[in-house]
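ingest -> validate -> predict -> emit
validate: passed (alphabet ok, no gaps, 83 aa)
predict: started
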Amino acid sequence: MNYKIIIQKSAEKFLKKQPRKIQERLLIAIYKLPKGTDIKKLQGHNMYRMRVGNIRILYTVDDVIKIISVEEIDSRGDIYKRL
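emit:
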């Protein structure tokens, strides 16, 4: 049941701008997917969101080919504006 995790460019860009401790915290959370805490399916979208402090990680899951694609990572106030 291992999933391959793909981090999109916009998510990677946000990740690289963060301090090292926050980067580590986010990466640990990402590599625990699809399991994890505080995960919800977004209404009206085929995406899920994971909360890590005040940062949100938006991702999609393809159970057939076992791929998780991390689409966006941003602060709570800004991430939903992009949907």
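Residues 4-82 form a domain with the YaeB-like fold fold (CATH 3.30.2310.20).
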